[in-house]
Amino acid sequence: MPAILLTPAGLVIVALTLVPIGFLVFTSFTDYDKRTLFTGVYNFVGFQQYTAVLSSAAFWEALVRTVLFTAAMVAGSVVIGMGVSQLMLRTGVIVRYLVTIVLIVAWAMPNVATSKVWVWLFQPGYGVIPWLITQLHVFGNVTQKDFTNSFWGALVIIWLLVVWQAVPFIALTLFAAQTQIDQSLIEAARIDGASEWRVYFNITLPFLRPTLGLMTILSIIWDFNVINQIILVAGVQVLKPIATLGVWSYLTAFVNSDVGSGAAIAVITTILLLGITSIYIRNLLKSGEEF
């Protein structure tokens, strides 16, 4: 009877998750390309795609770029999220509700709409942020500068965009976790003369460690796979110099029509993420936490 009740959910999981993953792995062992889409003809090439990808300098460059970019986005998201959750604890009820609503609205906005808003903010000629930077009189007049068409400009905008999208979820989750801390411990520490910094590092942070670990591993997975924001902000013309593994897989499969190689890059990326996740789960099991 339990198996029958689980059948609909199981069928959905198989249809929407396992079948696409299986097709991805299958495709990575073939020379599937644009010709295959029209003729259905392909050949099994074994590990040839994997060998070509792993021996390519472009793969290692994209891997280093992905790791650095992911580290920057995860660090920014977690640190700012921790700061916002602390501010929410120290504000009144009305302000806290308003901040919560703003965070939920920001988090619920679609990727496309958010990306277009950030591109508009940096638009040359009438963008708000270039105008504000110009008013500082530090970097000169940058109102006509096209930030999205430059390497560092595009990177900064994408970083701001991804962090802005991630902070609401992290801040609200950490805030909920902090409300579960036994306040008598904090009050006792304050009575004993502990500073606010010492209370935070000796009581709050140890309590938040499991939640922070989960937020960090989720952020790594999300940021490792960031593609939409990069494509929507930078556009195809400047994609190659800032291509992460996800973007490189997209360019290979759908721009260069080499679907087999693109699938191989995606499979390698998935294996890397599974390796990172296994380290987190192993540490979780060693610490005795349940998940």
Give a brief rundown of this model.
The protein has 291 residues and is mainly α. The chain has helices at residues 2-28, 34-39, 48-54, 57-89, 93-108, 111-121, 128-135, 151-178, 183-191, 196-224, 228-234, 245-255, 259-287.
Provide a count of the helices.
Answer: 13
Strand content: under 5%
Describe the oligomeric state of these chains in a short phrase: single chain
Radius of gyration over C-alpha positions, nearest whole angstrom = 23 Å
Query: How is the main sheet built?
Result: none
Ranges where pLDDT stays below 50 over 5 or more residues in a row are none
3D shape:
globular
Q: Which structural class matches the secondary elements?
A: mainly alpha
How confident overall, as mean pLDDT?
Answer: 85
Straight-line distance between termini: 26 Å
Helicity range: over 70%
